[in-house]
Amino acid sequence: MRVTHSEFVISNTDVAKCPKEPLAEYAFIGRSNVGKSSLINTLCARKNLAKTSGRPGKTQLINHFKINKNWFLVDLPGYGYAKTSKTNKKAFQQLITRYFEKRQQLISAFVLIDIRHQPQRVDLDFMEWLGTNYIPFAIIFTKADKLKPLARERNIKHYLEKMREEIWEETPPYFTTSSLHKTGVEEVLTYIDQLNKEFKNTP
Ligand code: GDP
After folding, report:
1. Which residue range(s) make up the domain with 177?
2. 37 lines ligand 1 (CB under 6 A)
3. Distance CA 68, CA 81 (A)
4. What DSSP string describes 65-121?
5. What is the pLDDT of residues 64-121, one digit of tens each?
6. Which of 26, 34, 81, 35 is nearest to 59 (CA)?
7. Atom of ligand 1 at shortest distance to CA of 179?
8. pTM of the predicted model, to two decimals?
9. CA of 33 relative to ligand 1 center, distance in Å
10. Considering the domain boundaries, does residue 203 fall inside one?
11. What is the tens place of the pLDDT at every residue in 150-174?
């Protein structure tokens, strides 16, 4: 799939105000600075659709974009920013919990992980929460250009092993992307395209 049309629809803090149109929806989430805005812009072949934030942890909004007039891409706020206040963290948790619990048309979340980093508790816990709540997700390992191929393989293998050691019998689908080199994005879009087709064929 190629993204030929992308438009911003709405930003809000209230899941009740999310678009009502019954289109398939995919939510992108990860720690601040993981490369989420860059990836969304690369997926959509746009420079500034998602705003790369200079103040991580400040914008706690659910951002809806309509892609190819056919599905929603949702940019969720980044989590795990150390300097965020307790009140902010709580507001974030409520926002995210409500979003995932209420949004019926969500087909899959994409959890973004910086490929360079060791598995972090906050990401593992978040994915565990998704699993416990039966919310399908895939992992996107970002910033692949920062490592040589062997180191990439090693880190991914280590990450999935860590997940298996914890609660996961089966690890989720995963992708490896670089917004700098624009690699891996086609695979993500093909995956979304497949899921969109399944969604359309579901009575
Ligand atoms: P967000 O906070 O998750 O939305 O992250 P951003 O997209 O704003 O990116 C955070 C920083 O990582 C910025 O300095 C980006 O230029 C950089 N970055 C994002 N994606 C990549 C990538 O694929 N490769 C490299 N080398 N840097 C990246």
Report:
1. 6-198
2. yes
3. 32
4. EEETTTEEEEEPPPB--TT--HHHHHHHHHHHHHHHHH-TTEEEEEEEEETTSPP-H
5. 999 999 999 999 988 876 666 777 778 888 899 999 999 999 999 999 999 999 999 9
6. 81
7. 23
8. 0.94
9. 6
10. no
11. 999 999 999 999 999 998 999 999 9
Number of domains in the chain: 1
For ligand 1, whether the C-beta of 33 sits within 6 Å is: yes
Could you give the percent of the chain with pLDDT greater than 90? 76
For ligand 1, atom 20, the nearest C-alpha belongs to: 35
For atom 12 of ligand 1, which residue has the closest CA? 35
Residue 80: inside a domain = yes
For residue 146, the ligand 1 atom closest to its alpha carbon is 26
Residues 6 or more apart from 84 whose CB is under 8 A from it? 57, 92
In this structure, is residue 160 part of a structural domain? yes
The predicted model gives 44-72 an average pLDDT of 80
Is the CB of residue 10 less than 8 Å from the CB of residue 19? yes
Name which residue sits closest to atom 18 of ligand 1, judged by CA. Answer: 35
Q: Which CATH number belongs to the domain containing residue 74 in this structure?
A: 3.40.50.300
Q: Which of 38, 46, 51, 188 to mutate to test the pocket of ligand 1 (most atoms within 8 A of CB)?
A: 38
